[in-house]
Structure prediction request, 360 residues.
Amino acid sequence: MGDEMKQREKIVFMETADFSGRVDLKRYDRVFVLVDENTQDYCYPLLQQQGVLPDQVLMITGPQGEPMKTLTSATALWETLTEKGATRNSCLLVLGGGLLCDLGAFTASLFKRGMDFMLIPTTLLAQVDASIGGKNGVNFSHIKNHIGCFRLPEQVLIHPAFLSTLPRRIFLSGISEMLKHGLIADYGYFQSLVSLPEFTPEALTPFIFSSVQIKLKITKVDPKEKNYRKALNFGHSIGHALESWSNEAGKTALLHGEAVALGLLAELWLSGQCLGMSPEPAAELKRVLPRLVPDFSFSPSDLDALLWYVFQDKKNVADDIYMALLKNPEETVPAFRVEKEWVSKAFLYLSHYLTTEKKG
Ligand SMILES: NC(=O)c1ccc[n+]([C@@H]2O[C@H](COP(=O)([O-])OP(=O)(O)OC[C@H]3O[C@@H](n4cnc5c(N)ncnc54)[C@H](O)[C@@H]3O)[C@@H](O)[C@H]2O)c1
Ligand SMILES: [Zn+2]
Prediction:
């Protein structure tokens, strides 16, 4: 394990917008702030007002949209950092959603073999998940997060007030990861979430802290995902396949969280078939799924293409599919070998749910 993964992760919850005093950027020779067009407009002004940033801040406008999470974008950022004189004593402050956090952390981790970076996540998904645990990466050959590494940020600053400007669909897509946290580690938390009468930033804010605690606890025990951390992939073997497939040209593209919401249902079903998991959590999940997933379906003829993506999953060993499944709520089997035939059946179950129950 690298030293950088042994250090304590510094997570700061911002109940007010008082960033000054919480973040020390004076020790760096240059500070680069990575934003995209939205976070530049909606989030950056707050940092500016708070006087956290040194006089000489260098803004970099990064890309938006999952197809832009590539090595090409990382290369463009390396070029900019080089042109603007970044050194090993500089810091990259990432102000953005999960995409920018992943891309920025990846870029910083490899620049001159690693420059410091800080994350200020601005979406719900990034606050409860993407900014915690030190994983970064870019997509490659249509495969999600295929190239990347583990490296912790110097600091993560979580400020729920940023959520107020998020488009509704993007806000909602963060909830799936919170549901996942509940299923794998705190079933009472899951039940409280599915019982919320409405999903608003105000209603969700108290839950952010619990989700971060769950993710931190798991990633501290197993920072490099040798075993237990794989639990955090629950819902993601099928979720990632749906996400990658739906983002192919000409299809209804699902957001990460939307695909994971469906992945959770399919993998709960698989957990029932393979490990005897009770059907109640799936029934509870179905209460909120129509609020979390837009109109989307696939047909049995898409099965081969979807399975191809499942076979690309990083949890697989040789030609066998391994998934994190649940025996009971809060009891994960981090690497369970699943026959291809059962994965196909899980997709068919999901396809049936999407075209009948969810629509009805
Ligand atoms: N590293 C990890 O452990 C990890 C975990 C989960 C997800 N991820 C990654 O996170 C990515 C998804 O992240 P996401 O859901 O945050 O989406 P995103 O980062 O693509 O952001 C979605 C959109 O919201 C906009 N936006 C961000 N903050 C805003 C704000 N406060 N107000 C208005 N608009 C704002 C962005 O400009 C963008 O257009 C995926 O690439 C996924 O792979 C990584
Ligand atoms: Zn995820």
